[in-house]
Amino acid sequence: MNIKAITITLTVLLIGLVVTTYVLDQHKSNWVCGPVLFLLGLALCLVQIILTATTLTTAKQKLKIGLTILSGLILLIYLTGFINFLTNCS
C-alpha cells in the first residue's frame, strides 16, 4: 500500500469536489448552501494540502498512516456536505 499515492489522490478528489461545488452552485437559486459549502471546502483544501505535504516529508510510518486516515475523514466530511448540497439545496 503506497501511502503517498493515497494521500495525493484524496487531495485531488477533495479539490475536484470543491470545484464541482462551485460550478454546480452557479446553477442553483439558493444563495446559502453552495457558498457556505464552497468556503468550507476551501478551508478543508488548505488543511488537506498541509496534511499531504506533511505525509510526503515525514519518515515515520505510523504518522503517515494517521495523517492519511485524517485526510480520508476530511474528504468524507466534505462528501456528506456535497451530497446534502445536491439533494436538499434547490
What ranges have pLDDT less than 50 throughout 5 or more consecutive residues? none
Report the total helices.
Answer: 3
Oligomer: single chain
Strand content: under 5%
Order of helices and strands: HHH
Largest sheet: none
Rg, rounded, reads 14 Å
Structural class: mainly alpha
Helix content: over 70%
Average pLDDT rating: 89
Domain count, please report it.
1
First-last Cα distance? 41 Å
Structure description:
The protein starts with a helix and ends with a helix. It has one domain (3-88). It is elongated, with a radius of gyration of 14 Å. With 90 residues, the protein is mainly α. The longest helix has 28 residues, at 61-88. The mean pLDDT is 89. Helix content is 84%, strand content 0%. α1 (3-25) runs antiparallel to α2 (33-57), α1 (3-25) packs parallel to α3 (61-88) and α2 (33-57) packs antiparallel against α3 (61-88). It is built from three helices and no strands.
